[in-house]
Amino acid sequence: MMNYSSKKPPPAIQADNLTVTRGHRTVLRNLDFAVPHGQITGLLGPSGCGKSTLMRAIVGTQAKVTGTLKVLGHPAGAPALRSRIGYVTQAPSVYDDLTVRQNLAYFAAILDPGRTATERRHENVTRAIADVDLTSHADALAGNLSGGQRSRVSLAVALLGTPELLVLDEPTVGLDPVLRRDLWDLFHAIAAQRRATLLISSHVMDEAERCHRLLLMREGEILADDTPEALRTRTHADTVEAAFLHLVDEATATDAHHKEPAR
Question: Rounded to two decimals, what is the model's pTM?
Answer without folding.
Answer: 0.87
